[in-house]
Every structure is written in structure tokens, then in C-alpha cells.
């Protein structure tokens, strides 16, 4: 329990001046500081942070193991940020896919409503066939992207679990 208290104390201490300088009624800014800024640590900051939080016995093997854990935690943090950026991109692609499906349905409804002369009808049929083929290819692409999205979410979950395990190891080594 003491280790958890130390960690939160030092995290909040890093941004204390920013919190105190924020107006009391600016709850969004305070929450942003607590959710984002407080956890934004570079690898050097993280090493210093863990040195403050966890008393280290002057044993070189213990220091090396804590350093390797710190570097692994930093790597996981970077991977997590990259995955979050990819999720934003995939959401936009999914939105475009929904819009395209809606447009395709509207075109199909118009096809049944308006009779066309034969030459114009053949021209439109070939255009619609091209559109349907294009839409089919895009639908397959979207499905592949959704599969990739699922895979990335699973990988993100695994990385989160590994981060938790590493944090537990750090806590155990500090005791």
C-alpha cells in the first residue's frame, strides 16, 4: 500500500504547480492534467521517477533489473500510443464504409424506380457493375481492416496485461 501511495504522490507532485495554477472551475483542465499529463513520462523521467518511488538497495544487479523493467515499460507505453493512433484511423475508415454502403443501397433503389432507354440502360448497367465491383472490393478491404482492428485490440490488451505484470514485478523487487 505504501508503494502505491508513493507512486501517486510522486505523480501528482510532478504536476502540482500546474494543478494549483488552474482555476477551480476548470474541471476539464484538471481532469486532463490527471489523466494525460500526469502519466506522460519520457524514459529518463520514468527512471528518475522510479528511483524516487522505489527505494533501491545499492546492488548493481537489482539496479540493472529495475532499469530493464523501466525500459520495457517505456516500450510498451510507446506501442500503446501507436495502437491508439491506429484505432482513430480505423474508426474513420469504418465510417466511410457505412456511408458507401448507404450510397450503394440508394443507387440500387433508384435503379428499380427509373426506366431507361436501351443504350442508356446498358451504359448505366456497366457503370453500376463497375460501382458494385468497386464496392465489393472496398467491402473486402474494410473487412480486412476490421480484422486488423480486432487483432490490434487483442495485442493492445496483451500489452496492457504485460505492463501490469511488469509493474507487479517492480513492486515485488522494491519490497
UniProtKB/TrEMBL annotation:
Keywords: Coiled coil. Gene3D superfamilies: Ypt/Rab-GAP domain of gyp1p, domain 3. Residues 66-93, 135-169 form a coiled coil. This is TBC1 domain containing protein. It comes from Euroglyphus maynei (Mayne's house dust mite).
Amino acid at each position: 500500500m505504501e508503494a502505491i501511495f508513493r507512486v501517486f504522490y510522486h505523480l501528482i507532485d510532478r504536476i502540482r504547480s500546474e494543478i494549483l495554477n488552474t482555476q477551480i472551475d476548470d474541471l476539464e483542465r484538471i481532469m486532463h492534467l490527471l489523466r494525460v499529463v500526469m502519466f506522460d513520462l519520457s524514459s529518463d523521467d520514468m527512471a528518475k521517477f522510479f528511483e524516487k518511488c522505489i527505494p533501491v538497495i545499492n546492488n548493481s544487479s537489482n539496479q540493472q533489473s529495475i532499469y530493464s523493467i523501466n525500459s520495457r515499460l517505456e516500450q510498451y507505453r510507446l506501442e500503446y500510443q501507436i495502437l491508439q493512433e491506429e484505432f482513430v484511423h480505423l474508426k474513420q475508415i469504418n465510417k466511410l464504409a457505412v456511408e458507401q454502403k448507404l450510397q450503394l443501397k440508394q443507387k440500387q433503389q433508384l435503379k428499380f424506380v427509373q426506366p431507361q432507354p436501351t443504350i442508356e440502360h446498358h451504359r448505366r448497367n456497366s457503370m453500376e457493375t463497375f460501382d458494385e465491383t468497386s464496392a465489393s472490393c472496398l467491402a473486402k478491404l474494410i473487412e480486412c481492416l476490421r480484422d486488423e482492428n480486432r487483432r490490434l485490440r487483442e495485442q493492445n490488451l496483451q500489452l496492457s496485461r504485460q505492463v501490469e505484470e511488469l509493474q507487479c514485478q517492480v513492486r515485488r523487487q522494491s519490497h
